[in-house]
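Task: encode each sequence below as structure tokens.

Item 1
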Amino acid sequence: MIVSVLAMAMANSPWSSYYLGFLDHPISLIFGNFNLLSHHGNPLTMASFINDCLMAIFFFHVGLEIKREILVGELSSVRKASLPILAAFGGMIIPVIVYLLIEHVSPGSKGMAIPMATDIAFSLGVLSLMGKRVPLSLKIFLTAFAVVDDIGGILVIALFYTDTIQWTYLLTALGLVAVLLAACKLRINKRAIYAILGIAIWFLFLQSGVHSTIAGVLVAFTIPARPSLKIGKYIDRIRYSINTFPKTGDESMILTNDQIYELKNIEEASDKVISPLQYMEDKLNGLVNYFILPLFAFANAGIVFSGEGNLIGTVTLAVALGLILGKPIGIFCSTWLSVKLHIVSLPDGVNWKSIFGVSCLGGIGFTVSLFIANLSFGSANTALLNQAKLGIIIGTIVSGIIGYCFLNFTLPQKEALD
């Protein structure tokens, strides 16, 4: 949010030309005569690099989280997944309806998917402000329906924001995805293979006309989730290495060749006991949260308060109310109806007040909402894009404040927990 404020300040300051120049600056990564960062022969601008390349890494990270949740997390069984899926379904449909009730005329209606998304990081961040007062089951519920929201957002991007498709590029990319799926099935855990072919798939998607971020999600689903070495065998190997570790008479800082050999065995075993999926997810956490997302916010939250068109319009209102009203109404009503119809039951330690508070936090739709706004309007309609951005920021801030205040008032006080 700090970076977003900085972007708005830059966009409306005497230095706005430097801000816009930074976003329009061409960027290349050339190998011989081949430029990896190009689209049909033209170098990507910095804005395109952030939105098409770095955000593909973001969605790759999201894809890893989704795969983990499906395999061993809150989406790993029908019983676990039913409540968040139903909650997320309402939380995606109702905001679109609210949006279209306010703005149903083209080109403004193209932004109807903007208020669908929930930002996992921001919403969990607000929830964490209340510390131990928040039951674990409530955090799990928020995380799970936000993950399902992400799946919905990815499907929307894939289905509705694709123009002309270059089938040669797309089919080649899907062929490489099939190769990675086969490698995963054969338990080939060499991370370099997935990284190199993943970059190739991203480039082919970029040229195909299907948004390149979809490549990040598809590649993530091919990453092996099983480690090469089971934890029991790993412990046995480590114990053996420790017991047979060559000892010398002195405490020299220089290791012997035998000692280095055993340490390499331990290092290799430690590497094999972590699956590629967990390794990549862990390694990307810092890059995504502290570099890609702030840079994305800086590049996309720069609302210009003067210029063409009105900054506050029906799109602003539609996006803001879609997040502030549509998300909580959709999430809460879907949950309530599903429980009353005995399709699902509420998790232990969760009541209807806490469900409503978390439903309000579902209106925090910052990252993916900004991304969909750019796809909806782009540079072709700057006025509507600025309106959408302002609506996202208003909706996110208001939803966060309402959700925090309601939960802070209704959750048990710390003294009661003690």
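Item 2
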Amino acid sequence: MKQQDSDNQARTTAYKKPRFILVMLMGLTLFVLCAGYLLFAWNRYQKMAEAEAITLAESVEALLHAEHLTHLTGTSNDIESVDYIMTKRSLLQLVQANDQIRFAYILGLQGKNIIMLVDSEDESSPDYSPPGQVYYEATHEDFVLFTSGGSILEGPQTDRWGTWYSALIPIKDPINSKVVAALGIDYSVDEWNQRIFKRLVPDILIIASLISVCIALLYTWKEHQKVKARAQRLSIDEALFHGVFDQAPIGISIVRDKSFTYQPEQGNFTMNSMFGKILGRSSAELATIEWPDITYAEDLQADMKQFDRFVKGEIDGYSLEKRFIKPDGSIIWTNMIIASVAEDVSTDLIHLCLLEDITARKKSEEKLTESERSKSVLLSHLPGLAYRCKFDSAWTMEFVSDGCLKLTGYPPEALLNNRVISYDDLIAKEYRDSIKREWNRILPTRDFFKYEYEIITHQGERKWVLELGQGIFDKKGNVEALEGIILDISDRKKTENILKYNNEYDALTGLHNRASLEEVLRADQDSNFGVKRAMIGINITTMHLLTLAYGYQYSQGLIKRAADALKTLSCDQHRLFYTHENRFVFYVFNYQDKTELIAFCEDIVTALKSILSAERIGGGIGIIEIDEGNATSADRLMRNLLIASEKAIGETEGDFAYSIYDQEMEAQIIREEMIRLDLVRVLEGEAGARFYMQFQPVYHIESERITGFEALARLTSDRLGVISPVEFIPIAEKTKLILPLGKEIIKQSFQFLKRLSQRGDASTSVSINASAIQVLQSGFIEDMLSLIDEMKIDPKRVCLELTESVFSSNYRDINNVLGLLKEHGIKIAIDDFGTGYSSFSRERELNVDCLKIDKSFIDKLLFIREEEAISGDIISMAHKQGHRVIAEGVENEKQVRYLKKYGCDMIQGYYIAKPLDETDALELQLHKKRI
């Protein structure tokens, strides 16, 4: 018997050992399978996250405008540009709208470096990257992106800002599909892994449930094995029950009525730990409260209604999604199941309550609902339509948003399945083939479609649209459908056309402007080499006289009429441009010789005279032939053409003349440039030119003595010799060198006046010629008065001379300055009186003391009878105005007798003395010469 027991025990031990090994192998296998499954799930969610990151970045890139990015230079100058500001705002909105994205930026390739073009950081942020900052963290894949054009996801990689996953998407030029930049979006690795872990929670619950099921199966198997050992089996059953009960992924509790717990006579609470964990309360705390106390108020009524029916026996149980309130005030969503217990253990109402935490699912549902709502709002406010269509010849629509009606004039259902009209029929015919070619080009590469074209609406209106789309592919890679949006860009196109027109045309005349002419010249430089070309410039700058007299609108009306007249001469061979205010240019193409050009100029004169002759307005016509020597510079051609036309203006008055730009005129331009350089040398104190003053006496007829001198500027050059003031003064005025030169003239004139005082002459005055440019210069009065004080000059001995012509423009401003000078005792004289545009009625209003009769009137006294001369009348009328009179250019006794007879105050000219050097002038005044 003992031997038999021993054998049984041995057999039992022998049986248990392989069973133990088998269980261990099964457990190890289950562990490996579970671990493998979790690893597989983690990798699958990682790939999903990567795909979502790439998709999000590609969606954002589709909303960016590549044309804005092509304008960015990658320098600090971008910060103030509209393209930079708009792109910056888009990135900021992206980061603010998506809490997953930590940083967004746009990279550009500059030479061998990848640089930062725009980022989403505020300029005050320490992480802000200014335009042009080199992206030192760039990898080889980053550079490949600019050539391959493919999207990439990098990471995790660590830099000075942290550890990131980075999605990089190429941004391509819509015209040539060349990668112009890269959109980058950075995700924090910690937050990235947290999101993956949240997705993994259900899988963990599944594994836990699987383990629970396996344990349950193992429990069942053990129960079967321990049928003969009841006590041991019951013990194992109890252990297994508590294991499953306590470790179940759902909350389980046997409750009484509205209480959360039920305590049988044995004293054990029938509630697992998950039940309390879901509610955020311990079992002891739940034993003291009832479930209505912590039920969310909005869910209580529905729960009580079902519970009342359950208590009355109308239903065996119920299931309800309801919310409970945790101790910290937060809300948890649960799926609650109430069921009857199979066998009541007392007369009280005992039932089973199961709780499943569905908070995460509810949040996902809320996000999905919000996403659908946002999608609905987006589609309702989209300036166009969203679509899904087949990839067929008619673009058969399977889905069209409500924006279809506003965009096309057709309701969405009219386009669905081509019920009324196909979308292909809406596309303007000239774009249909090119659209198909573009789709066929991008679909094999699975790139994004972006194209601008015109559609014809139900009302017959043409609209510009921008289509953004992509192909949808099945598992075999075949095109399943096309999806995208079609936006109305008619307003943008209209603005572009207006800007293009304003850039190429003049608004007043409707003619092409200077920019258009320069573009034509550049285009014809190579394509029409060998064909004779020329430009004819029409200069009507004298039109400003009519503007002064009759106003701006009147003169502009004449210019418009002149343009209309010249348009009649415009053709393919003679193209007309309005290059500047009051200036036209004919671009003459394929002509025979200069004779043909001159004949065409005669036609121009005839056309303009019919408009302008009644206004006594003339102008100059410049002609320049385009050859190999000057064709390379449009600016030089325009400058030389202007010079030729201005020379023609100088050769006529109140009429039209023409002048051909030739070698002689070229030589004149070179001479003017040499004179300008000599003036610069003088002002900078360099050798090669000398500037000095001469002084011509002014003789007072009544007192028979010299009472003043006119200071005359002189210039000599080592290269050009003596240069006349008539030549170098206009150049100085044109180049604004007259400003420093004028200060030097005033200074040397004051020095001469000071030397007169030192010789005991305290009454002789000095007249200084001034330019309108000087007089109107800010600070002219202050500088002159400061120099007078500094050199201790009596301002009453200073006379400022201005030519009569300066009053034809800026009359009021100049007259105000002269009035201020007179208040300080400085005398004012009008030089060359009688040759300009003023009259005695205007002269009465001028702040002047003296008139200087021009030499041309004095010269006539030698050739005409006394009664025919008007110089005496000028003297008489000037005296009536209270002004003194000086006669210029007096060289003959006969002229002197006439001027004495008619009461001229002073005379000046070779009869008294020619302009003298300072030493000779001082010597002459010392001897008090008389006539």
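Check on item 2: DSSP finds 31 helices and 28 strands in the chain. The chain has a mean pLDDT of 84.
End of task.
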